[in-house]
Amino acid sequence: MLLDAGRGALIGTVEIIPGVSGGTVALIVGVYETLIASAGSLARGVATALADGVRGRGFARAGAHFAAVRWAVVLPVGVGMIIAVLVASAVLAPVIEAEPVASRALFAGLIIASLIVPIRMVGGRWRAREYGVAVLGAIAGFALTSLPHVDPLEPPLPVVALAAAFAVCALVVPGVSGSFLLLAVGMYAPTLAAVNERDLVYLGVFVLGAMIGLGLFVSVLQWLLEHRRRVMLATMTGLMIGSLRALWPWQDESGLQAPGGDLVPVVLLVLLGITAVGGVLLVEAAVLRRAAARLEAGGAASPDPRSDAAA
């Protein structure tokens, strides 16, 4: 139990850092497939309980979904994640507010290095189709991050729920950061603030949106990754590239600005972010190699663990 709580703390800590994927860390510490399967069962159980309760059909079907959840793993991991998010948010929020240029530079480095994940997961040589959808994704990402952001102090609650629903989908693919999705649509800072201020209304709506996202979108994404894997991952790559606009270090409410006199430290921070994610990816690669070696030694097939997790 303590080990799983420690795993959850690692996942929760990186989950609030844009560019570092909690899914990647979950894969590294060995709980990725369990969490994804359990989260899907939990979301389906809640949805089934609501639907069958209204229709007077009882809760037998919902109970079957709840029984499929690995509670012995999910609960301690969840507690560890919650504690880590609370602690890390309290540390990060004042830093981001005091040093916006430096924060965006570091986050940009994290995202740039993370691009290797969906690029690598496409598998094999990219074809014209993959390049085409990646370009379209980059254009869409740039356009979305060019839209006026919501009020950073009081975002509408429907926007909060929608942002949470999409951000939770990042759990499906290791390497894709949910925090980065929040950052790209201007919801990262208000979400951190809500955690630090214990804004229960905001957090309740956020959790509700995340549950809806798990129930509706994650299954669709899993299907797309199984049946349209190359196109889906190429699209994700393009979206991440286009969304880097949100992390241009020098910008204000009027738009993007030219680099200032702090060019050298900004470049160093970008390189630091690239190095940090590169280190995480190297550890992940080592874990995957060991897992493949164990499967081969046992006489079993050795598929890509990421493919199994996403299927």
TrEMBL record:
Pfam families: VCA0040-like. The keyword Membrane applies. The chain crosses the membrane at residues 71-95, 101-119, 131-150, 156-173, 201-224, 263-287. Keywords: Membrane, Transmembrane, Transmembrane helix. The keyword Transferase does not apply. PANTHER family: INTEGRAL MEMBRANE PROTEIN, POLYPRENYL-PHOSPHATE TRANSPORTER. This is DUF368 domain-containing protein. It comes from Microbacterium radiodurans. The lineage of its organism: Bacteria, Bacillati, Actinomycetota, Actinomycetes, Micrococcales.
